[in-house]
Protein backbone atom coordinates (compact mmCIF):
# COMPACT_ATOMS: atom_id res chain seq x y z
CA UNK A 1 0.00 0.00 0.00
CA UNK A 2 1.00 3.62 -0.52
CA UNK A 3 0.94 6.09 2.38
CA UNK A 4 0.39 9.81 1.85
CA UNK A 5 1.14 12.69 4.22
CA UNK A 6 -0.55 16.07 3.76
CA UNK A 7 1.74 18.30 5.84
CA UNK A 8 5.37 17.68 6.76
CA UNK A 9 6.00 19.02 10.23
CA UNK A 10 7.48 17.51 13.38
CA UNK A 11 4.69 14.96 13.94
CA UNK A 12 4.61 13.81 10.30
CA UNK A 13 8.37 13.29 10.20
CA UNK A 14 8.26 11.39 13.53
CA UNK A 15 5.49 9.07 12.29
CA UNK A 16 7.29 8.51 8.97
CA UNK A 17 10.53 7.69 10.81
CA UNK A 18 8.65 5.20 12.99
CA UNK A 19 7.03 3.58 9.94
CA UNK A 20 10.33 3.26 8.10
CA UNK A 21 11.92 1.51 11.10
CA UNK A 22 8.96 -0.85 11.60
CA UNK A 23 7.62 -4.04 10.04
CA UNK A 24 4.75 -2.16 8.35
CA UNK A 25 4.43 -3.33 4.75
CA UNK A 26 4.21 -0.36 2.38
CA UNK A 27 5.34 0.45 -1.17
CA UNK A 28 5.98 4.20 -1.07
CA UNK A 29 5.43 7.14 1.25
CA UNK A 30 4.32 10.32 -0.50
CA UNK A 31 4.92 13.59 1.36
CA UNK A 32 3.80 17.11 0.52
CA UNK A 33 6.39 19.79 -0.12
CA UNK A 34 4.76 22.19 2.36
CA UNK A 35 7.95 22.11 4.42
CA UNK A 36 10.48 21.24 1.75
CA UNK A 37 13.44 21.18 4.14
CA UNK A 38 11.90 18.40 6.26
CA UNK A 39 10.65 16.57 3.16
CA UNK A 40 14.16 16.52 1.63
CA UNK A 41 15.70 15.28 4.90
CA UNK A 42 13.20 12.41 5.02
CA UNK A 43 13.91 11.50 1.39
CA UNK A 44 17.66 11.41 2.04
CA UNK A 45 17.30 9.37 5.22
CA UNK A 46 14.74 6.74 4.16
CA UNK A 47 14.00 4.72 1.03
CA UNK A 48 10.81 4.99 -1.03
CA UNK A 49 10.00 8.57 0.00
CA UNK A 50 8.43 10.64 -2.79
CA UNK A 51 7.97 14.42 -2.55
CA UNK A 52 4.88 15.80 -4.32
CA UNK A 53 4.03 19.47 -4.85
CA UNK A 54 0.33 18.79 -5.42
CA UNK A 55 -1.72 17.42 -2.51
CA UNK A 56 -4.32 16.02 -4.92
CA UNK A 57 -1.69 13.80 -6.54
CA UNK A 58 -0.92 12.38 -3.08
CA UNK A 59 -4.64 11.67 -2.57
CA UNK A 60 -4.88 10.00 -6.00
CA UNK A 61 -1.86 7.71 -5.47
CA UNK A 62 -2.32 6.62 -1.85
CA UNK A 63 -4.41 4.10 0.09
CA UNK A 64 -3.84 5.68 3.49
CA UNK A 65 -3.90 9.46 3.95
CA UNK A 66 -2.48 11.23 7.02
CA UNK A 67 -3.70 14.80 7.58
CA UNK A 68 -0.99 16.66 9.51
CA UNK A 69 -1.53 20.38 8.94
CA UNK A 70 -2.60 23.15 11.30
CA UNK A 71 -6.36 23.63 11.90
CA UNK A 72 -6.54 26.81 9.82
CA UNK A 73 -4.74 25.23 6.89
CA UNK A 74 -6.83 22.07 7.26
CA UNK A 75 -10.09 23.99 7.04
CA UNK A 76 -8.90 25.66 3.88
CA UNK A 77 -7.42 22.76 1.91
CA UNK A 78 -9.22 19.54 2.97
CA UNK A 79 -12.59 20.51 1.46
CA UNK A 80 -10.88 21.22 -1.89
CA UNK A 81 -9.36 17.73 -2.14
CA UNK A 82 -11.13 14.80 -3.82
CA UNK A 83 -10.79 11.76 -1.57
CA UNK A 84 -11.61 8.15 -2.52
CA UNK A 85 -14.21 6.04 -0.73
CA UNK A 86 -11.83 3.12 -0.17
CA UNK A 87 -9.19 5.20 1.59
CA UNK A 88 -8.24 5.16 5.26
CA UNK A 89 -7.92 8.75 6.43
CA UNK A 90 -6.14 9.55 9.69
CA UNK A 91 -6.21 13.10 11.05
CA UNK A 92 -3.59 14.47 13.44
CA UNK A 93 -5.40 17.86 13.54
CA UNK A 94 -6.29 18.64 17.13
CA UNK A 95 -9.31 20.90 16.66
CA UNK A 96 -11.18 19.55 13.64
CA UNK A 97 -13.81 17.05 14.80
CA UNK A 98 -14.87 13.82 13.08
CA UNK A 99 -18.15 15.43 12.07
CA UNK A 100 -16.33 18.36 10.50
CA UNK A 101 -13.91 16.02 8.73
CA UNK A 102 -16.76 13.99 7.26
CA UNK A 103 -18.36 17.14 5.86
CA UNK A 104 -15.05 18.26 4.33
CA UNK A 105 -14.07 14.87 2.91
CA UNK A 106 -17.55 14.20 1.46
CA UNK A 107 -17.03 10.50 0.67
CA UNK A 108 -17.62 7.47 2.90
CA UNK A 109 -14.20 6.45 4.17
CA UNK A 110 -12.62 5.13 7.33
CA UNK A 111 -11.88 8.40 9.14
CA UNK A 112 -9.94 8.24 12.39
CA UNK A 113 -8.42 10.91 14.60
CA UNK A 114 -5.07 10.06 16.20
CA UNK A 115 -2.68 11.78 18.61
CA UNK A 116 0.88 10.57 17.88
CA UNK A 117 3.79 12.22 19.68
CA UNK A 118 7.45 12.71 18.63
CA UNK A 119 8.74 9.56 20.47
CA UNK A 120 6.84 7.52 17.86
CA UNK A 121 9.95 8.02 15.69
CA UNK A 122 11.64 5.60 18.13
CA UNK A 123 8.62 3.28 18.04
CA UNK A 124 7.73 4.49 21.54
CA UNK A 125 4.81 6.22 23.17
CA UNK A 126 1.01 6.01 23.21
CA UNK A 127 -1.26 6.92 20.30
CA UNK A 128 -4.87 7.64 21.31
CA UNK A 129 -7.23 6.89 18.39
CA UNK A 130 -10.90 7.79 17.96
CA UNK A 131 -13.15 6.06 17.06
CA UNK A 132 -11.82 2.53 17.73
CA UNK A 133 -10.64 0.99 14.46
CA UNK A 134 -8.97 -2.43 14.33
CA UNK A 135 -6.99 -1.71 11.16
CA UNK A 136 -5.63 1.61 12.46
CA UNK A 137 -4.94 0.09 15.88
CA UNK A 138 -2.85 -2.71 14.34
CA UNK A 139 -0.96 -0.14 12.26
CA UNK A 140 0.04 2.08 15.20
CA UNK A 141 0.75 -0.90 17.48
CA UNK A 142 3.69 -1.64 15.18
CA UNK A 143 5.25 1.76 15.91
CA UNK A 144 4.03 2.34 19.47
CA UNK A 145 1.00 1.48 21.56
CA UNK A 146 -2.62 2.57 21.15
CA UNK A 147 -5.39 3.77 23.43
CA UNK A 148 -8.86 3.55 21.91
CA UNK A 149 -11.32 6.36 22.64
CA UNK A 150 -15.02 5.80 22.01
CA UNK A 151 -16.20 9.27 23.02
CA UNK A 152 -14.56 11.92 20.84
CA UNK A 153 -15.10 14.62 23.47
CA UNK A 154 -12.60 12.77 25.68
CA UNK A 155 -9.83 13.10 23.08
CA UNK A 156 -9.35 16.76 24.01
CA UNK A 157 -8.11 15.59 27.41
CA UNK A 158 -5.32 13.54 25.82
CA UNK A 159 -4.40 16.45 23.54
CA UNK A 160 -4.23 18.71 26.59
CA UNK A 161 -1.75 16.47 28.40
CA UNK A 162 0.39 16.24 25.25
CA UNK A 163 0.89 19.99 25.66
CA UNK A 164 3.11 19.28 28.70
CA UNK A 165 5.99 17.68 26.79
CA UNK A 166 8.10 20.85 26.68
CA UNK A 167 7.47 21.39 30.40
CA UNK A 168 8.71 17.87 31.13
CA UNK A 169 11.88 18.42 29.12
CA UNK A 170 12.42 21.74 30.91
CA UNK A 171 12.15 19.94 34.27
CA UNK A 172 14.89 17.53 33.15
CA UNK A 173 16.92 20.42 31.77
CA UNK A 174 16.67 22.30 35.08
CA UNK A 175 18.09 19.32 36.97
CA UNK A 176 20.84 18.80 34.41
CA UNK A 177 21.88 22.46 34.66
CA UNK A 178 21.88 22.21 38.48
CA UNK A 179 24.22 19.21 38.35
CA UNK A 180 26.39 20.96 35.80
CA UNK A 181 26.77 23.99 38.10
CA UNK A 182 27.80 21.62 40.89
CA UNK A 183 30.73 20.42 38.80
CA UNK A 184 29.24 17.42 36.95
CA UNK A 185 30.02 17.31 33.21
CA UNK A 186 26.96 18.16 31.14
CA UNK A 187 26.99 14.83 29.25
CA UNK A 188 27.23 12.85 32.49
CA UNK A 189 24.53 14.96 34.12
CA UNK A 190 22.14 14.54 31.18
CA UNK A 191 22.80 10.81 30.93
CA UNK A 192 22.10 10.38 34.64
CA UNK A 193 18.90 12.45 34.73
CA UNK A 194 17.37 11.05 31.52
CA UNK A 195 18.23 7.46 32.50
CA UNK A 196 16.77 8.01 35.98
CA UNK A 197 13.46 9.30 34.68
CA UNK A 198 13.32 6.66 31.94
CA UNK A 199 13.69 4.00 34.65
CA UNK A 200 10.98 5.66 36.75
CA UNK A 201 8.62 5.78 33.77
CA UNK A 202 9.29 2.12 32.93
CA UNK A 203 8.67 1.19 36.58
CA UNK A 204 5.34 3.05 36.45
CA UNK A 205 4.39 1.19 33.25
CA UNK A 206 5.31 -2.20 34.72
CA UNK A 207 3.27 -1.37 37.83
CA UNK A 208 0.38 0.15 35.87
CA UNK A 209 -2.08 -2.02 37.83
CA UNK A 210 -1.27 0.22 40.80
CA UNK A 211 -2.47 3.81 41.14
CA UNK A 212 0.42 6.25 40.87
CA UNK A 213 -0.27 7.58 44.35
CA UNK A 214 1.02 4.26 45.74
CA UNK A 215 4.29 4.71 43.82
CA UNK A 216 4.51 8.22 45.28
CA UNK A 217 4.14 6.71 48.74
CA UNK A 218 6.50 3.77 48.11
CA UNK A 219 9.30 6.05 46.85
CA UNK A 220 9.46 7.95 50.16
CA UNK A 221 10.94 7.08 53.52
CA UNK A 222 10.07 8.97 56.73
CA UNK A 223 12.18 12.15 56.90
CA UNK A 224 14.03 10.98 53.78
CA UNK A 225 15.18 12.98 50.76
CA UNK A 226 12.14 12.16 48.59
CA UNK A 227 9.75 13.14 51.38
CA UNK A 228 11.59 16.45 51.70
CA UNK A 229 11.49 17.07 47.92
CA UNK A 230 7.77 16.25 47.68
CA UNK A 231 6.82 18.46 50.63
CA UNK A 232 8.88 21.38 49.33
CA UNK A 233 7.39 21.24 45.82
CA UNK A 234 3.88 20.75 47.20
CA UNK A 235 4.30 23.80 49.44
CA UNK A 236 5.55 25.81 46.45
CA UNK A 237 2.35 24.91 44.58
CA UNK A 238 4.17 23.09 41.77
CA UNK A 239 1.59 20.31 41.40
CA UNK A 240 -1.36 22.69 41.61
CA UNK A 241 0.24 24.75 38.84
CA UNK A 242 0.38 21.62 36.66
CA UNK A 243 -3.38 21.23 37.05
CA UNK A 244 -4.05 24.90 36.29
CA UNK A 245 -1.77 24.71 33.23
CA UNK A 246 -3.65 21.68 31.93
CA UNK A 247 -6.92 23.55 32.46
CA UNK A 248 -5.53 26.47 30.48
CA UNK A 249 -4.48 24.22 27.58
CA UNK A 250 -7.85 22.45 27.70
CA UNK A 251 -9.67 25.79 27.61
CA UNK A 252 -7.70 26.88 24.54
CA UNK A 253 -8.38 23.63 22.69
CA UNK A 254 -12.04 23.68 23.65
CA UNK A 255 -12.34 27.25 22.41
CA UNK A 256 -10.93 26.16 19.05
CA UNK A 257 -13.35 23.23 18.87
CA UNK A 258 -16.38 25.31 19.75
CA UNK A 259 -15.50 28.44 17.78
CA UNK A 260 -16.94 29.36 14.41
CA UNK A 261 -15.72 31.67 11.69
CA UNK A 262 -16.50 35.23 12.75
CA UNK A 263 -15.08 36.65 9.51
CA UNK A 264 -14.98 35.11 6.03
CA UNK A 265 -13.39 36.64 2.95
CA UNK A 266 -14.29 34.96 -0.34
CA UNK A 267 -12.56 35.73 -3.66
CA UNK A 268 -12.14 39.41 -2.85
CA UNK A 269 -10.70 41.83 -5.45
CA UNK A 270 -9.86 45.52 -5.37
CA UNK A 271 -8.56 47.29 -8.47
CA UNK A 272 -7.03 50.75 -8.62
CA UNK A 273 -7.10 51.44 -12.34
CA UNK A 274 -5.60 48.30 -13.85
CA UNK A 275 -3.69 47.32 -10.70
CA UNK A 276 -5.14 44.66 -8.39
CA UNK A 277 -4.17 45.65 -4.81
CA UNK A 278 -6.22 42.70 -3.52
CA UNK A 279 -6.54 39.73 -5.85
CA UNK A 280 -8.73 36.64 -5.34
CA UNK A 281 -8.20 36.83 -1.58
CA UNK A 282 -9.97 34.23 0.58
CA UNK A 283 -9.45 33.68 4.30
CA UNK A 284 -11.28 32.98 7.55
CA UNK A 285 -10.87 34.34 11.07
CA UNK A 286 -12.03 32.12 13.94
CA UNK A 287 -14.09 33.67 16.72
CA UNK A 288 -12.06 34.14 19.90
CA UNK A 289 -8.66 34.04 18.18
CA UNK A 290 -5.86 36.53 17.62
CA UNK A 291 -5.10 36.18 13.92
CA UNK A 292 -2.04 37.87 12.47
CA UNK A 293 -1.75 39.11 8.90
CA UNK A 294 1.80 39.62 7.72
CA UNK A 295 3.53 40.21 4.41
CA UNK A 296 5.98 42.52 2.67
CA UNK A 297 5.09 46.15 1.94
CA UNK A 298 2.65 46.39 -0.95
CA UNK A 299 1.19 42.91 -0.38
CA UNK A 300 -2.35 44.29 0.10
CA UNK A 301 -2.73 44.03 3.89
CA UNK A 302 -3.96 47.56 4.60
CA UNK A 303 -6.18 47.59 1.50
CA UNK A 304 -7.75 44.34 2.75
CA UNK A 305 -8.42 45.97 6.14
CA UNK A 306 -9.99 48.97 4.41
CA UNK A 307 -12.29 46.64 2.46
CA UNK A 308 -13.31 44.69 5.58
CA UNK A 309 -13.86 47.87 7.62
CA UNK A 310 -15.96 49.57 4.94
CA UNK A 311 -13.43 52.32 4.21
CA UNK A 312 -13.13 51.13 0.59
CA UNK A 313 -15.54 49.44 -1.80
CA UNK A 314 -14.44 46.15 -3.33
CA UNK A 315 -14.35 45.48 -7.06
CA UNK A 316 -15.81 42.00 -6.54
CA UNK A 317 -15.96 39.22 -3.97
CA UNK A 318 -17.59 38.84 -0.60
CA UNK A 319 -17.00 39.77 3.05
CA UNK A 320 -19.05 37.98 5.72
CA UNK A 321 -19.28 38.78 9.42
CA UNK A 322 -21.03 36.15 11.53
CA UNK A 323 -22.53 34.71 8.31
CA UNK A 324 -23.98 38.11 7.34
CA UNK A 325 -22.85 39.62 4.05
CA UNK A 326 -21.23 42.97 4.90
CA UNK A 327 -19.51 43.59 1.56
CA UNK A 328 -19.23 47.35 0.94
CA UNK A 329 -21.23 48.20 4.07
CA UNK A 330 -19.92 51.59 5.30
CA UNK A 331 -17.79 51.76 8.43
CA UNK A 332 -20.35 53.65 10.55
CA UNK A 333 -22.82 50.78 10.07
CA UNK A 334 -20.16 48.16 10.86
CA UNK A 335 -19.40 50.05 14.08
CA UNK A 336 -22.90 49.27 15.36
CA UNK A 337 -22.38 45.58 14.49
CA UNK A 338 -19.24 45.43 16.66
CA UNK A 339 -16.45 45.76 14.05
CA UNK A 340 -13.82 48.33 15.01
CA UNK A 341 -10.60 49.26 13.33
CA UNK A 342 -7.47 51.05 14.54
CA UNK A 343 -4.93 52.77 12.29
CA UNK A 344 -1.15 52.81 11.86
CA UNK A 345 -1.22 56.43 13.04
CA UNK A 346 -3.41 56.91 16.12
CA UNK A 347 -6.53 59.05 15.61
CA UNK A 348 -7.22 60.81 18.91
CA UNK A 349 -9.02 64.03 19.83
CA UNK A 350 -5.89 65.96 20.77
CA UNK A 351 -7.63 68.68 22.83
CA UNK A 352 -9.73 66.28 24.91
CA UNK A 353 -8.49 64.33 27.91
CA UNK A 354 -7.89 60.59 27.83
CA UNK A 355 -11.14 60.03 29.75
CA UNK A 356 -13.09 62.34 27.42
CA UNK A 357 -11.68 60.55 24.36
CA UNK A 358 -13.11 57.30 25.67
CA UNK A 359 -16.45 58.87 26.59
CA UNK A 360 -16.85 60.05 22.99
CA UNK A 361 -16.95 56.49 21.64
CA UNK A 362 -20.42 55.07 22.48
CA UNK A 363 -22.90 55.95 19.75
CA UNK A 364 -26.46 57.36 20.02
CA UNK A 365 -25.90 59.04 23.37
CA UNK A 366 -28.99 60.85 24.62
CA UNK A 367 -26.94 64.03 25.11
CA UNK A 368 -26.41 64.23 21.34
CA UNK A 369 -30.07 65.25 21.02
CA UNK A 370 -30.68 68.91 21.90
CA UNK A 371 -34.25 68.13 22.95
CA UNK A 372 -32.96 65.68 25.59
CA UNK A 373 -30.43 68.22 26.83
CA UNK A 374 -33.20 70.79 27.36
CA UNK A 375 -36.09 68.57 28.48
CA UNK A 376 -34.41 65.48 30.01
CA UNK A 377 -31.22 66.71 31.66
CA UNK A 378 -31.37 64.03 34.39
CA UNK A 379 -31.44 61.28 31.74
CA UNK A 380 -28.44 62.82 29.99
CA UNK A 381 -26.54 63.19 33.28
CA UNK A 382 -27.31 59.61 34.35
CA UNK A 383 -26.13 58.16 31.03
CA UNK A 384 -23.00 60.35 31.07
CA UNK A 385 -22.10 59.11 34.57
CA UNK A 386 -22.47 55.49 33.45
CA UNK A 387 -20.23 56.13 30.43
CA UNK A 388 -17.71 57.92 32.63
CA UNK A 389 -17.57 54.98 35.05
CA UNK A 390 -16.98 52.60 32.19
CA UNK A 391 -14.23 54.88 30.83
CA UNK A 392 -12.56 54.81 34.27
CA UNK A 393 -12.67 51.00 34.22
CA UNK A 394 -11.03 51.01 30.78
CA UNK A 395 -8.15 53.32 31.76
CA UNK A 396 -7.56 51.20 34.85
CA UNK A 397 -7.52 48.04 32.73
CA UNK A 398 -4.94 49.64 30.43
CA UNK A 399 -2.85 51.04 33.32
CA UNK A 400 -3.52 54.60 32.14
CA UNK A 401 -5.31 55.86 35.29
CA UNK A 402 -2.48 58.29 36.02
CA UNK A 403 -3.14 59.92 32.63
CA UNK A 404 -6.96 60.11 32.85
CA UNK A 405 -7.04 63.91 32.79
CA UNK A 406 -4.06 64.38 30.47
CA UNK A 407 -4.77 65.81 27.02
CA UNK A 408 -4.59 62.97 24.49
CA UNK A 409 -2.37 65.09 22.25
CA UNK A 410 0.34 65.01 24.93
CA UNK A 411 0.54 61.20 25.06
CA UNK A 412 3.45 59.21 23.61
CA UNK A 413 2.92 57.09 20.51
CA UNK A 414 2.55 53.91 22.54
CA UNK A 415 0.11 55.51 24.98
CA UNK A 416 -2.01 56.70 22.05
CA UNK A 417 -2.13 53.13 20.73
CA UNK A 418 -3.31 51.96 24.17
CA UNK A 419 -5.97 54.66 24.07
CA UNK A 420 -7.13 53.41 20.66
CA UNK A 421 -7.38 49.92 22.12
CA UNK A 422 -9.40 51.39 24.99
CA UNK A 423 -11.93 52.80 22.54
CA UNK A 424 -12.78 49.30 21.38
CA UNK A 425 -13.59 48.41 25.00
CA UNK A 426 -16.13 51.22 25.30
CA UNK A 427 -18.50 49.43 22.92
CA UNK A 428 -17.56 45.78 23.63
CA UNK A 429 -16.31 45.14 20.10
CA UNK A 430 -16.83 41.71 18.55
CA UNK A 431 -14.01 41.99 16.00
CA UNK A 432 -11.09 44.41 16.30
CA UNK A 433 -8.88 45.12 13.29
CA UNK A 434 -5.47 46.33 14.49
CA UNK A 435 -3.36 47.99 11.79
CA UNK A 436 0.32 47.95 12.85
CA UNK A 437 -0.52 48.61 16.48
CA UNK A 438 3.17 48.18 17.38
CA UNK A 439 4.53 50.68 14.84
CA UNK A 440 6.66 53.37 16.50
CA UNK A 441 6.06 52.01 20.00
CA UNK A 442 8.97 51.47 22.39
CA UNK A 443 9.59 47.96 23.72
CA UNK A 444 8.22 48.65 27.21
CA UNK A 445 4.88 49.98 25.96
CA UNK A 446 4.79 47.31 23.25
CA UNK A 447 4.84 44.72 26.02
CA UNK A 448 1.95 46.54 27.74
CA UNK A 449 0.04 46.59 24.44
CA UNK A 450 0.59 42.87 23.98
CA UNK A 451 -0.55 42.16 27.53
CA UNK A 452 -3.71 44.24 27.03
CA UNK A 453 -4.56 42.48 23.75
CA UNK A 454 -3.99 39.07 25.35
CA UNK A 455 -6.16 39.94 28.36
CA UNK A 456 -8.98 41.25 26.17
CA UNK A 457 -8.85 38.05 24.16
CA UNK A 458 -8.66 35.62 27.07
CA UNK A 459 -10.79 37.42 29.67
CA UNK A 460 -13.36 39.26 27.55
CA UNK A 461 -13.48 37.03 24.46
CA UNK A 462 -12.42 39.69 21.93
CA UNK A 463 -11.47 38.49 18.46
CA UNK A 464 -8.49 40.31 16.97
CA UNK A 465 -7.18 40.41 13.42
CA UNK A 466 -3.90 42.32 13.30
CA UNK A 467 -1.46 43.54 10.68
CA UNK A 468 2.06 43.68 12.05
CA UNK A 469 5.68 43.60 10.86
CA UNK A 470 7.27 42.74 14.21
CA UNK A 471 7.58 38.94 14.01
CA UNK A 472 8.46 38.63 17.68
CA UNK A 473 5.33 40.57 18.69
CA UNK A 474 3.19 38.54 16.28
CA UNK A 475 4.74 35.31 17.56
CA UNK A 476 3.82 36.08 21.19
CA UNK A 477 0.20 36.86 20.37
CA UNK A 478 -1.03 35.26 17.16
CA UNK A 479 -2.25 31.80 16.29
CA UNK A 480 -2.64 31.50 13.35
CA UNK A 481 -0.81 33.90 11.02
CA UNK A 482 -1.80 34.57 7.43
CA UNK A 483 0.90 35.66 4.99
CA UNK A 484 -0.14 37.85 2.07
CA UNK A 485 1.76 38.46 -1.16
CA UNK A 486 0.63 40.33 -4.27
CA UNK A 487 -2.87 40.83 -2.89
CA UNK A 488 -3.71 37.24 -2.01
CA UNK A 489 -3.05 34.65 0.69
CA UNK A 490 0.31 32.93 0.29
CA UNK A 491 0.39 30.90 3.51
CA UNK A 492 -1.58 30.08 6.67
CA UNK A 493 -0.14 28.45 9.78
CA UNK A 494 1.93 29.18 12.86
CA UNK A 495 4.65 31.84 13.05
CA UNK A 496 7.32 29.14 13.32
CA UNK A 497 6.01 27.42 10.19
CA UNK A 498 5.95 30.76 8.36
CA UNK A 499 9.58 31.45 9.24
CA UNK A 500 10.62 28.14 7.68
CA UNK A 501 8.36 28.24 4.62
CA UNK A 502 10.39 28.82 1.44
CA UNK A 503 7.62 30.72 -0.35
CA UNK A 504 7.24 33.09 2.60
CA UNK A 505 10.99 33.66 2.88
CA UNK A 506 11.26 34.33 -0.85
CA UNK A 507 8.30 36.71 -0.72
CA UNK A 508 9.91 38.77 2.05
CA UNK A 509 13.59 38.72 1.21
CA UNK A 510 14.22 36.84 -2.02
CA UNK A 511 15.85 33.48 -2.58
CA UNK A 512 18.56 32.23 -0.25
CA UNK A 513 17.47 34.40 2.67
CA UNK A 514 16.17 33.56 6.14
CA UNK A 515 13.28 35.25 7.87
CA UNK A 516 14.36 36.55 11.27
CA UNK A 517 12.59 38.07 14.26
CA UNK A 518 12.38 41.84 14.26
How does this structure look, described?
It is a single chain. This protein has 518 residues and is α/β, with parallel strands linked by helices. The protein folds into four domains: 3-159, 3-Layer(aba) Sandwich (Rossmann fold); 165-250, ProC C-terminal domain-like fold (Orthogonal Bundle), CATH 1.10.3730; 259-346 and 429-509, Rossmann fold (3-Layer(aba) Sandwich), CATH 3.40.50.300; 349-410, no CATH class. 46% of the residues lie in helices and 18% in strands. It contains 22 helices and 18 strands. An eight-stranded mixed sheet has the order 3-2-1-4-5-6-7-8, sandwiched between helices. α7 crosses α12 (238-258). The longest helix is centred in the middle third of the chain and has 21 residues, at 186-206. The radius of gyration is 27 Å and the shape is globular.
